[in-house]
Design goal:
Keywords: Hydrolase, Metal-binding, Zinc. With 210 residues, this protein is an alpha/beta fold. 19% of the residues lie in helices and 30% in strands. It starts with a strand and ends in a 7-residue tail after the last helix.
């Protein structure tokens, strides 16, 4: 059974996730945000097989280089945001200089795409391209667990007013893809508490299906 740990990082209280295998020896990191000190301490002694990015906004990729250098692992991101890692204007760190200095990382080692299967820590992660909050936003499905980044939150949805955001795309991603998952699917969001697909279908005031 996979173990899921949440680390709330940085000034925007971004959720980073550490997933470890049954033996507690191998791990995957999702969205290492700004100031990943707690996360870095936790992964000491673990073999981190990958850093998976739901998207490349500053609060989700701010700790990429620190974690990558500490763990010696590759980074995965959707091609539509590959150059955001190397461009502080695109990842937002130039705009929000009060939160962090301009962020420039090495390029990602691997690209993500819709329907891709990633075999990591003895399990299969399915990549779902879920644009709207940003053009390259993806969600990762692992069994009954979904890591949605800033696409879907408990009783809320991601903002679409940032560069590359599009309200129609976000709505389509949620209703056309995420809401097709089983109702019991647990959603681990980029900010705030976890939720379920069923709860959001019934209660989300922005996209709820009644």
């Amino acid at each position: 059974m996979i173990n899921i740990e949440k680390f709330v990082l940085g000034p925007l209280q971004t959720n980073a996730y550490l997933l470890t295998d049954e033996a507690g020896e191998r791990g995957v990191v999702i969205d290492p945000g700004i100031g990943p000190k707690k996360l870095l301490e936790r992964i000491k002694g673990l073999k981190i097989e990958a850093i998976l990015l739901t998207h490349a906004h500053l609060d989700h990729m701010g700790g990429v280089d620190e974690v990558r250098k500490a763990a010696g692992c590759p980074v995965y991101i959707h091609d539509l945001e590959a150059d955001w890692l190397t461009d502080p204007a695109k990842n937002g760190s130039l705009r929000w200089s009060d939160l962090t200095p301009p962020l420039v990382t090495d390029p990602a080692e691997y690209a993500l795409d819709e329907g891709q299967k990633l075999e990591l820590i003895g399990h299969v992660f399915t990549v779902m391209h879920t644009p709207g909050h940003s053009p390259g936003s993806v969600s990762f499905l692992l069994g009954n667990d979904l890591f949605s980044g800033d696409v879907l939150f408990r009783a809320s949805i991601g903002r679409t007013d940032l560069p590359g955001g599009r309200e129609r795309d976000l709505y389509d991603s949620i209703t056309g893809k995420l809401f097709k998952l089983p109702r019991e699917t647990v959603v681990y969001s980029g900010h705030g508490p976890k939720t379920t697909i069923g709860f959001e279908m019934d209660n989300n005031p922005y996209v709820g299906i009644r």
